[in-house]
Amino acid sequence: MTEDILLSVENLKVHFAMKRRGLTGPKSFVHAVDGVNLKITKGKTFGIVGESGSGKTTTALAVMRLVPITSGTITLGDFRLDQLQGEELRRARRHMQIIFQDPYSSLNPRVRAGAIVREPMDLMDVGETSEREDRVAELFRQVGLRPEQQALFPHQFSGGQRQRIGVARALASQPDLVVCDEPVSALDVAIQAQIINLLRKLQDDLGLTYLFISHDLGVVQYICDEIAVMYLGKVVEQGDRISLFTEPLHPYTWALLSAVPSADPALRDQKNRIRLQGDPPNPIDPPPGCRFASRCPFSQDLCTRETPPLRPIKDGHLVACHLVSDDGVPPQHAD
Amino acid sequence: MSAADNSQSQDAPPTFEAAYEIPDIEHPLREAARMFARNKAAVGGLILLVGILILTLLVPFFYTVDPFDLVWAPLSPPGTENALFGTDYLGRDILAGIVHGGSATLAVGASAALLAVVIGLSVGSLAGYYGGWVDEVLMRITEFFQVLPTLLFAMVIVALFKPSVATVAFAIGVVSWTAVARLARSEFLRIRSLDYIKAARSISSSNRRIIWFVILPNAMPPLVVQATLAVGGAILFEAGLSFLGLADPNVMSWGFMIGSSRDYLMDAWWTVTIPGIFIFLTVLAVSLIGDGLNDATNPKLRER
Fold it and tell me: If contacts are CB pairs under 8 Å, which of residues 138-177 in chain A contact chain B?
C-alpha cells in the first residue's frame, strides 16, 4: 500500500486571521483546514468531497502553496513543500500544477491561448526554447484543441474549450501532481463528461496523479480511486471508492450520498436516508467535540465532549465517528 | 452524469467543439476602437482636440507675431485690423497669445496628468496588490493628500520654487494623483483575487511580473479614462494658478492671459473671454474623449 506515495500531507492546518475588533480586541481565526492527513499514490486520483466551506479548496490551494500554511507538513516526491521558499519554491512548482474551477476567470483575457500554454515553460524553464513551439501545438492536440487556435484570445472560446486551455497550461510543465479544483462544476453536463474523460485519458497516457476536489459525488465516483470526505476543516471519512460508496460509515457521508438524486424509486425511499437540517457551525469558533454533532441525527453526549479521532475500520477505510463500531457497523436509527 | 460514454472517445480527442469553425471575433482593441468611432460626442471631441493641437503646435510657425510684443492700441476690440481677436490692456495681440500660449497650457496639462498617473499608479498598485500594512500606510498617505486644500498646497509648492512651466506641472501633479491611486488600488484589489493571478503564481511568476504584465494590462481601461480626465483637470488647474499670478510671467499661456487681464473684464470682455473659450474647448474635448474611451472599454455599456 505504501510503495509509491507521491504526495503526503500531515496534520495540515490553514487558519486565516480575521480583522481584530477595535485596536486591542482578540485576534480570531477562521479554521479553514484543521488537521488534515492525506496520502496520494502515484498515478492515482484522490478525491476530496464536501460542501461549501468544508475546506476542500483551501486544502488544494495549500498543497499548491497558494495560501499560507499555518502548520503541518506537505511532501511531494523529494520536496518538502511546506518549507520551500523563494527560488526553491519556484523550482518545485513545475512538478505540481492546478486546474481551476471557473474557466472564465482562470485565463488572463489579454493573453492569446498559445501564449497562456507556453508561459509555464518559459517561466519555469521546461525543455529547450526551440522545442517549445512544437510542444504547445502538441499540448493543444492532446487536450482536443486545434493548434491553429493558439492565436485566439480566451473570450473567443467556449467554456469547455477554455477549460481545455487550462488543462493544457497545467500540463505544460510536465507536472507529477495535478490539482483539479472543481474542474467541471462550472460547465454544463455534456461538457463535464468531455472534460472528465479528457482528464482520465491524460492520466492513462501521461501517468498523472490527481488531487481532485469536487462537491459532485457522481463525478468523484467516476474518476477517483480514493476519496476523503471533509466537513468543517476535518476529514470525517476516507476510503477507496468502492467501500466508501457501498458502505458509508460516517453519518455525514451517508447524508451526502442520500442527497444525490437517484433515478431508482427503490433507492429514493430508503429507510437509511438522512436529511440534514441547518448549517454547519461557524468555522471561526468550531464547537468542541465532533464538529458534525450539531447536525447529526445520532449525536450523543460523548460527541459534543470529545473529538473523535480518524481511525481505521478495515484496510484503507477510515472514519472519525464515536458511534461507528470497531467492526464497521454504522449508527442506526432506534426504530 | 455517470458518463459511461467512452464509446466515442478513447483515442481520438473527444470533441465536437473542435469541428466547429471559430467565428471571427474582433480583437478587443479593435472592437473598442469601433465602439469609440460610433460615439458621436467622442469623435467630436477627438476632432476638436486635433484642431487645438494643430492650432497650438503648427500654426505658431505661420503666425509669428510675438505674444509679448505691443502691436496695436491697448484694448482694441476683436476684428481690428492686424489683431483678429483684439488686443489686451498693453496692446498685445490676443490671437498671438492664443496661438503661442496654448502649447504651454497643454504641456503643463499633459505632464501634470502624466505625473499624477505615475504617482497614483505606483501607490495604488502597491497598496492594492500587497494589501495589509502596505495598503494601510499608503492609503493613509493618500488620504493626507486628499484632505489638503489642493489649490493652496499647489500655491505653496510653486511659491517655494521659482515659478516655471516645470514647477507648475510638478505642483499640479503632486496634488492630483489621489484619484488615480484610489482607482488603481480598487482595480488591483479586484483583479488580484481572480484565478488567473493564482495561475500566474502557480507557474512561478514573480510579484513584479504579476503586477506589471498580468494585472496592469487588465486594469488599464479605467486608468486610461482617469488619465484623460486628469489632463482636463490639470489644464483647469494651470489656468487657476496662472490667474492667481503664480505662473512663469515670461511664458505666455491661456491661464496667464486671463489672469493678467482680469481687471479689464468689464471694459474689454474679449481679453479674458477668448482664452477662456479655448480652455473650455480643450477641457471639453479631452473629457469627451475620456468619456468615449470609458464607454468603449466598458463591456457593460455595449448594446448589440
Answer: 141-146, 149, 152-153, 155-156, 158, 160-161, 166, 169, 173
